[in-house]
Amino acid sequence: MTDSKSESVLFIRRKPDWSILLATGAGMIFAPIIMLFSIFNYFTDNIPIDGISQIFLISFILIGEIVLVRTFLWHYRGQEKLTVNSSEFTIDKIGTMLANTESYKLEGLSHFALSKRKIMMLFSNPFSIDGGEIQFEYYGELKYFGQSLTRTEAKEIIKQLIKIIEQRTANSSSCCTTLLKKIE
Asked: What is the SS3 assignment for 45?
């Protein structure tokens, strides 16, 4: 954790999931081969595919390759950078591409807790790019982060975040720290 007068920063390093790394790595190898094979067959007329179908096929493979690279990078070297200043809590996913920084106003934060495990979350997020072990409410909507944390690590980070937010908002009347629910 880095702490300065203006902001506190906490990094959560993603632990690699080797099965996803192997699957996405294999996909990154085979997708360009399929795309090159498709382009070659288009120009040699071995497979009669019209131009529009060829464009859709190449576009589909290219978008799939981008998703595979993004997922591979996230699982290989991804980190979540948590930043708290006097007015915002920011979650920045670094180490991958096409990741958005999510900023939340401190007055809208409440109920930091361990996330509740739901079986449907496993099916809706097979590559583990979103979600996590820590949840909080932001104006009534649940948000998640801390994907590869153990429950013990997640509890410790929640305690640190609540302490940091309380320190940052002690002199500010714009945030109500009583909304933060301490974990058991």
From this structure: coil
